[in-house]
């Protein structure tokens, strides 16, 4: 991981973009801790996928807990078909 000032990023943007593209995140410190990180699109998509997977697993855990607590609604196939017809 590399840390670079904004002025250095501006002066050498290709260098830092290439670093990020090659898998090395670049941290850009800013005032009031409003830092940013430059990463490749591939790495960003992997982070998004991991975040989405974590959210999905949390929903599954919640559903599992609700089932264990008996907070379920049971419907027969006929009842579901009747609901769909309405």
From TrEMBL:
What family is reported? Belongs to the phD/YefM antitoxin family.
What does UniProt give as the signal peptide span?
A: none
Protein name stated in the entry: Antitoxin
The organism named in the record is Treponema porcinum
Q: What does this protein do?
A: Antitoxin component of a type II toxin-antitoxin (TA) system.
Pfam families linked: PhdYeFM_antitox (PF02604)
């Amino acid at each position: 991981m590399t840390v670079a000032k904004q002025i250095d990023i501006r002066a050498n943007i290709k260098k830092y973009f290439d670093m990020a593209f090659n898998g090395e995140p670049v941290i850009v410190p800013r005032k009031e801790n409003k830092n940013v990180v430059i990463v490749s699109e591939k790495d960003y998509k992997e982070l998004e996928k991991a975040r989405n997977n974590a959210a999905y697993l949390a929903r599954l855990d919640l559903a599992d807990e609700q089932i264990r607590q008996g907070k379920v609604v049971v419907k027969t196939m006929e009842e579901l078909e009747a609901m769909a017809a309405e």
